[in-house]
Amino acid sequence: MAQSHRQASRRLFEIAEQQQGFFTTKQAKAAGFAENTHPYHFQVGNWIREYRGIYRLALFPMADRPDLVLWALWSRNRDEEVEGVYSHHTALSLYDLSDLNPAKLHMTVPTDFRRNSDIPGILVLHYADLPATDVKMGQGFKFTRPLRTILDLIEAGTVERGVIRQALKQAVDRGLISRQQIRNTRMSGPARKIVEDVLRRVA
Prior knowledge:
With 203 residues, the protein is an alpha+beta fold. The protein is 43% helix and 15% strand. It has 2 domains: 2-57; 66-201, no CATH class.
């Protein structure tokens, strides 16, 4: 029994390690923790309940942005696949491309994404089917690549153009976006105009 528990604990740690210490009830069951043991681990302080069906290992070091992993896990589908991708204002802040400090987390989810319960107030959901090439992996969460992030913000029209231009210039200067990438990317006429205007100034 002790060996079985150690093996389950090791498997759960391996899962949680990839998610900044977080895990779901389904992942705990897959690691070897029977569902009727979950309340015990919560009560004795081994696990911290962060949200319905989502826990964190109490002894795992706290990361800088645990919220990103928590809400990424909230977006998982029935197959335990994370569907949410941080985008727009949130992705821009992750690249440190502006002084924006959004109070809410912007997340893009598939167009067929559905939830039976209310959407948490911390989240602003955008609906789009993102190609894999527009998505980058973080530690336990996904976020849009720089060019996609900026194009999303242009199309949304929720950020001042000056902020957009500054972010695009910094992204090009830092090598996060290449001119070839811009040439090969489909975008609307207004977005293309803004992007090319910035490129002319970044000689």
